[in-house]
Amino acid sequence: MDLALKGRIAFVTGASRGIGRAIALALAAEGVHLGLFGRDTTRCDKLAADVLKQYPDLRVCVVPLDLESGTAAIKPAIREAVKQLGGVDILVNCAGGAYRGRLEQIPDDAWERYFAVKPLGLIRMTREALPHLKKSKQGRVINISGTRGREPGGPSVMSGPINLGTLSITKALANEFGPLGITVNAICPGSTDTGRWTELVNITAKERGVSVEEATKHLVREVPLGRVVVPDDIAGLTVFLASKQAAMITGTAINVDGGRTRGIP
Ligand SMILES: NC(=O)c1ccc[n+]([C@@H]2O[C@H](COP(=O)([O-])OP(=O)(O)OC[C@H]3O[C@@H](n4cnc5c(N)ncnc54)[C@H](OP(=O)(O)O)[C@@H]3O)[C@@H](O)[C@H]2O)c1
Predict the structure, then answer these.
(1) Per-residue CA distances from 6 to 12, 89, 133, 244, 247 (Å)
(2) Domain of residue 248, residue span
(3) Does residue 66 have its Cβ closer than 6 Å to ligand 1?
(4) Is the pLDDT score of 108 beyond 90?
(5) Nearest residue by C-alpha to atom 28 in ligand 1
(6) What pLDDT, in 10s, does the model give residues 140-179?
(7) Which phi and psi angles does 173 have, rounded to 5°?
(8) How many domains does the structure of the chain reveal?
(9) Would you say residue 128 lies in a domain?
(10) Which residue minimizes the CA distance to atom 33 of ligand 1?
(11) Is 59 found in the same domain as 182?
(12) Is 125 in the same domain as 240?
């Protein structure tokens, strides 16, 4: 199937590891040039080298960016990536996370720091990328949210509002950007096997007073499909949403959680 992705340009935040890294690799496999944004440039440089080794015809640039630094850092970062790659067709806002803990365990400033990355960081990234996305024939914004935005709970009370904010801005921008021919969608990962999964397993083991193996079994038992989500599961859907086949999909949010979320999505 021709996804019409070859030669397109994607910017990916949170590309240094976990889900963002998998997304960058999956887009590269479809012939997409990459702007990799991250704080950890050593990891991003390694990813760029891995991509170029496999796909030497691609153009890849690494742009250092701490989203907590706000618009003052985001503006020049986008400018630099556009200068190096010539534009952008697909913006994948993946950077983020949530401070793990119940309400009383979360330091006050953590709320502001994490919200500065997601959803605020993705709002600013999208705004600064917009003039360039408008020039694309296949403009796409794909926001990595999380199922806790729909079903708050678990050991991170912060995950709910951060991901709900991401879903809300996704819908609002889909309406706003529709007439520009740009689609805006969200993906809601369930617990996914990145560093965050290891944290979740350890916290669950501690809270339940069980071993890490027991905690893992308990968490996996909650997933109807019987395994933890892996970053490639999210990457596959990202590629589809970026493709021409997804041209009429906008303003939606798709769970990739093995059925773990109990409510109707
Ligand atoms: N894993 C899950 O279970 C899960 C579930 C639901 C939703 N999600 C969402 O999926 C996305 C990716 O998560 P992940 O599991 O891949 O997490 P991860 O392995 O912890 O990676 C987080 C990424 O975000 C980047 N990041 C964090 N703070 C940043 C900042 N201030 N400026 C720039 N980049 C920053 C990190 O860059 P550095 O390397 O520089 O730290 C890293 O690339 C997040 O938005 C997360 O909320 C994940």
Answers:
(1) 16, 11, 17, 11, 16
(2) 9-192+230-256
(3) yes
(4) yes
(5) 96
(6) 999 999 999 999 988 889 999 999 999 999 999 999 999 9
(7) -75, -30
(8) 2
(9) yes
(10) 66
(11) yes
(12) yes
